[in-house]
Design a protein that fits this description.
alpha/beta; 2,3-Dihydroxybiphenyl 1,2-Dioxygenase, domain 1; four-stranded mixed beta sheet; three-stranded mixed beta sheet; 3 helices; 7 strands; about 35% strand
């Protein structure tokens, strides 16, 4: 098995599409009233799936966290420390919720956290060099 992608089960598809498209720049072409969005970003499948549609498909009800969701994070990488600060500032100006302002951690990573409209955590970070999956 290999990891193919990941997804978020969302309550308000229109709001979440606008956030990931307009705030973070994801190329989402689906209409705001769609039941799911499939997006490949940097070779990884990213899915937004309507909660009620998933519940209908599986025939089950699920519990969802309200407010900030500390169960997972979406990690985004930029090449420089300056880009971390800029991406954070731009996201905040466009309506993202601030969770942690940009800071340089003891292990050498500059990182910050924002949250999407449904409270999912998004990290924007850099080791001040271009991304190298082999070096991870």
């Amino acid at each position: 098995m290999r990891l193919d992608g990941f997804g978020l089960f969302v309550k308000d598809m229109g709001t979440m599409i606008r956030f990931y498209r307009d705030v973070l720049g994801f190329a989402i072409k689906e209409a705001e009233d769609t039941s799911n969005v499939y997006l490949v970003k940097d070779g990884t499948l990213f899915l937004l799936y309507g909660r009620s549609d998933f519940e209908n498909m599986t025939g089950r009800k699920y519990e969802y966290v309200k407010g900030l969701n500390g169960h997972s994070e979406l990690a985004l990488y930029v090449d420089t420390f300056e880009e971390v600060d800029l991406a954070y500032q731009q996201a905040i100006e466009k309506g993202a919720a601030s969770v942690l302002e940009p800071t340089t951690e003891p292990w050498g990573q500059r990182t910050c956290y924002i949250a999407d409209p449904e409270g999912n955590l998004i990290e924007i970070g850099s080791f001040n060099r271009p991304f190298d999956r082999k070096g991870v």
